[in-house]
Amino acid sequence: MRFVSEAGRLKAVLRQTRLTDPARQENSAEHSWHLAVMALVLAGHAPPGTDLGRVIAMLLVHDLVEIDAGDLFLYADEAQQARQEEAERAAADRIFALLPDGQAGRIRALWDEFEERTTKEARFARALDRLQPMLANIAADGGTWVTHGITAEQVLPKVALIEDGSAALGAYARGLVARAADAGLLG
Amino acid sequence: MRFVSEAGRLKAVLRQTRLTDPARQENSAEHSWHLAVMALVLAGHAPPGTDLGRVIAMLLVHDLVEIDAGDLFLYADEAQQARQEEAERAAADRIFALLPDGQAGRIRALWDEFEERTTKEARFARALDRLQPMLANIAADGGTWVTHGITAEQVLPKVALIEDGSAALGAYARGLVARAADAGLLG
Fold it and tell me: Please, which of B47, B73, B92, B99 could form a disulfide with B104 given CB 3.0 to 4.6 Å?
């Protein structure tokens, strides 16, 4: 129950992504929920044999470390990314240890799996985590792409990560980015 | 993708439950995420043979109807509850129909199962949905119990619903309510 209460603090972690209605920053708890719903309804685009339950479990816990480490903007530089990785590992050590013994290891393993991105479940989960902010940016007339002057060249590696998790969603994302560039939403 | 975008609107639906940090009303998207995380870590308190994947799927979609119907306070009167049920059914008809054919029926069936509360999966999911606001009220020094002058007699039927889904969580909730009453948080 200490973990359940601690997890609630993710509702206070704000992301760069802006919602249009209401116009405010998205928080990491509702972002995690949206990803889990996407996994449920887009499961047909996962590679054959994907364990959907593990995908959803990973998505539910993948951002809990942000309670301590905060959310880092997707296009932060390498030094910032390295500092963030360290902070997230320390957060994982603290937060998952609030769980009873066997369970702490099981949930931590889900977080490690998501980070390592070696299983098809983790790759599909990571693809959704990259696709959702793109959808939000398109819905918000460019959103953080416009605010931060992001270019198509910066977005394309994210598309490659989506393709790596799901060929169909990758193709869909590639089309989105091409149309966004045509519409002048990407520099 | 129209459904995925529509689902995001649940982030705008505010609940009575107040968060303490930040001090604001909880929205139904982050509430749904918290319940799914609770299902993941409290699964050991579900009846033997419970299909955890279906519990989590139900929790992820159970409040989507609130995009149209809004959230009704748990202690609303019977006439309000009846109007809410009708509004939620109309919302389910509209929102789940945004999904492709076969999938619309599958996700709608999850929502129906949650509402009907006949399977052990639905009863466990409903127990978590009742327990989470209790935890929030205790964390907020009585929260909506104090604001609305709720009595222990009004809370106990909710405890019975938790017991119906999980004996262990029901016993835990009964203890919480007794201590809250002793502490003067319940009228």
Answer: B99
